[in-house]
Amino acid sequence: MINTNQGWTSMMLRLQTGFDEKGAPQFKDKTYSRVLPSVSQDDVYAVGEALASLSSYKLHHIQRLDREDLTRN
């Protein structure tokens, strides 16, 4: 039997850093680890927006990455 335990959550900001020579957008990802799993979606988004506002790049989107640890009995 496999058991699951809630692991840590991470937040990734995708920032648009500009355009390539063909006009396609270029992105850079910035990941913040060890976000508490109990934090609400709204709070993760608000913190992501606040962090992105410190950058000179435009925020494209925010991802919440939840992890589970799997173990076998």
Automatic annotation (TrEMBL):
Species per Swiss-Prot/TrEMBL record: Tumebacillus amylolyticus
Every DUF1659 domain range: 9-71
Highest taxon, organism lineage: Bacteria
Name the record gives this protein: DUF1659 domain-containing protein
Family matches, as InterPro entries: DUF1659
